[in-house]
Amino acid sequence: MRILLVWLINALALIAVAYLVPSIHVSSFTSALVAALILGLVNAVIRPVLVLLTLPVTVLTLGLWILVINALLFWFVGSFVRGFVVEGFLAGLIGSILFSIVSWLLSALVLSRRK
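RE: above sequence
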């Protein structure tokens, strides 16, 4: 049940980011659900491999390279999920930062009340 709630929160966070950033578009709630699912899978499978492979760059940039990885993965998911469009790297960077913040805030509000 909790994982479904987190999935719903992430879809709502994607819709909020699309509302806040003009170069990110979500066409429907269904496409937001699909994008949230794919984004979660990409962050669970591909992101750790990329972080491990680029560890020297991450250390040299004092962790700022992680922001670049997040932006590229956000942009990547937007490139192949129909109904979810990220119009460039800068939109991916801003979108990934805002998505993390909004998702964290919504999770803190909703999931803390459930405990």
